Amino acid sequence: MTEHKEQTEQLSVASSPHIAASESCTSIMLWVVAALAPAAIWSMISIGLPAVQVYVLCIGSVLGTEAAWNAIAKKPQTLLDGSALVTGVLLAMCMPPMLPWWMSVAAGFIAIALGKLIFGGLGWNLFNPALVGRAFVLLSWAGVLSTLPDKGWFRTIDVEATGGLDAISGATRLAVAAADRAASGGYGFDLAAQYQPLLWRNLQGSLGEVSAALLILGGVVLLVKGIIDWRIPVGYIGTMGLLSWAFGSDPIFNVLAGGVLLGAFFMATDYVSSPMTKNGRLIYGIGCGVFNAVGRFYGPAPESTTFAILFMNGLAPLIDKMFVPRTFGWVKRDEE
Amino acid sequence: MSKAAFRGGVHPPEHKEATAAAAIEWMPVPARLVVPMSQHLGAPCAPIVAAGDRVRRGDVIGSVDAMVSAPVHSPVNGEVASIGVCLTTGGMRVPCVTITPDAEQDLETFVPVPEGDVRATVRAAGIVGLGGATFPSAVKLSPPKGVSVETVIMNGCECEPYLTCDHRLMVESPERVIAGARIMAETIGASRVVIGVEENKPDAIAALRAAAGDGIEVHSLVTRYPQGAEKQLIWAFLKSEVPHGKLPAAAGALVHNVATAAAIADAVELRKPLMERVVTVTGRVKRPGNYRVLLGTLVSDLIEHAGGFSGEVARVVAGGPMTGPALADLEVPITKGTSGIVVLGPDEIAPLVEGDQPCIRCGRCSEGCPMFLQPFAIANHANRRDWKTAELFHPVDCIECGVCSYVCPTRRPLLQLIRLAKAAAMSKGAKL
After folding, report:
1. Span B16-43, pLDDT tens digits
2. Which residues of A touch B373 (CB under 8 A)?
3. Total domain count for chain A?
4. Which pTM was predicted?
5. Closest to B71 measured CA to CA, from B130, B127, B138
């Protein structure tokens, strides 16, 4: 009896349930990072030090900003929830490899500070933080990115370090295709012949576009683990393919090229900025596909993934309001 | 083929292996019994004995003249030591009768329940829902006028992790369950009797099928928590939703736990009042098992009988870990609704999280909710004490199964917040 008395004092009391699933916020975020890792590592291997620099600076800037913000605001540190790491990796993957170091740092700061922290931190942001960072870079230095002056603050990565990969500063396949289309309505090159390089080794484009195959692999891992809902990538990619075909282009090329796969599997599926209802997720995925396709074929620039997803992020809360599920038992019954 | 169950739910690790094969055995009569006067939903009983009175096993020691109530019987021959107040597993203080049992006990004999029809017998025997809800069974056997109940559903799901008391009862006494089911169906004029058992208990399904005669269907259901919740079980069989604010009878069904059925059979056929029940004692105890325990036995005595704690203990739960209350004090009695004593270690309980954790809007709570609620929404509004908005998301429909809190990756206390919203809504007149 006395033994029990002693042990009673150690008993903790809490509201039921007393057990919890093993999945935590951190474990989910680390799975996302793991799913991105093959594509990210392959981009570093393919491009070399300039890519490594972008990853290191973007991730470092995102983590450093969040840590500093928490310290200044005297809030508990939140780096261990893993979400800032995901933002850093995703941000780097939507940056071009030849980015001046200070642009990487600025993009990281804007992404996490304006994309997440000023909203109140994890869970409260309306937009995907990584895409906020990318939109900031696109809008601020759009012209600069295409014609980087190699002097002063704009000094780019040492060309020697790229091992003579001058292709990486060339126009992307998407840009060439769009220019061809605008000029003649057709394409000056065979889109189907681009499948293989887009799948395995594409050095024209963002770091996340180096291998479509590895992105698909990562996406499938997240689907199998139940971390992302199939409705968003299927709605997004399906719509993108269908509309590309309807607009008279090659659907497979248009799904593989640009940021569609990275966007559909990893950006649009961000929990915080996407709808929570199942039907809402399907509508949201389809909406991303529609805006991405329309933007690509009729917008000012072929790279429309960023703004398509950001726009749908803004609509996500409204979409959720449209699809509040019917409570079990709230059935319409004939008056008896 | 197992039936597709219901939409939502989870499948937590079952942890039933420690006791699933352990035959039910009597726990010896303890040195004292503390018998609460309120072991059921409804009006508490008043003690009708006084300190120093002799009581026999089966004597009524507490009763009340109210429609929704159940009398309390002495589980032993002995002497009333005192009338007082005790703490229950649920943390309430209720009147109780403390009995000192005689040294010699014959648990085979008892004072029989007075003769009467089935409803009167079930009521006089003090039978309540033994699955944990403890609603007086006689009331459930009297559906409102004009409502016809075609189907009696026997709940043998035992979907809570760790618990095996119903499992063992179905394996060892399937004929009692079947007999009880027949009595109930006859009493309310139901034409169909179905027994639902989760597919993780194939031996129970086989035993029931062997004992079941014509007209009784035994179904294997997908193992998924909370399959044993009343509304979800009705849906599994009838594909019919109990309408909001209505009783299961409105869907044409009556649901009873298998242990309740066995107790009803004992009451009607043997005139035996409810004086003991099977309790699964498991987790961090040295001798986990399924024990037949006299009502009023202290949890501390039961744990001692089960060999005492083994290893580091962080929490003791009365019932299953998804819905049962945590005990702050082990000097509380086993009552009619106590299906288990689950002893959990520090690495087994849900981690205690400090401060307000963010909702990352992953949607797992909505996907898991068997009532199709949006727990995150109710909890978010409840968290800022915005009861009005919270009520729009139907907190009163919550069955408190705990799935939302279980799956939440940031460990937000969703169910706890929903309970607050539910209480707020009900205090303004919202009906269950």
Report:
1. 999 999 999 999 999 999 999 999 999 9
2. 325, 327
3. 1
4. 0.92
5. B127
